[in-house]
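Aggregate trends can hide what the representation actually does to any particular protein. This step matters because it turns folding into a mapping between discrete strings. For completeness, the protein is quoted in full, as a sequence line and a line of structure tokens:
=====
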Amino acid sequence: MIVAFSVSPSGPDTGDGVSEAVSRAVRVVRESGLPNETNAMFTNIEGEWDEVMDVVRRAVEAAGDGASRVSLVLKADIRPGHTGQLDAKVERVEGRLSAD
């Protein structure tokens, strides 16, 4: 499965934004060893259901450290029996674009 998620703590606005909290979440994902990528809006992670959801849970906890509330947006592509799709899905689209 591939999960795209975004996590952001809420609380008093200190003017510093949420980059520190988000970086704690991204660190958890990268240290998990699962295939992942981060862009301006989401972090994508690929693996089996239990391992991916465990990483998301720990990332939310890391981002929310010290916050009174945490917001989580999550989208999942659940396709049993398929791996390596984090890159393969993009490669299929790029292949079609280059064929035009």
Observations:
- Strands lie at 2-10, 36-38, 43-46, 69-77.
- The longest strand covers residues 2-10.
- The mean pLDDT is 93.
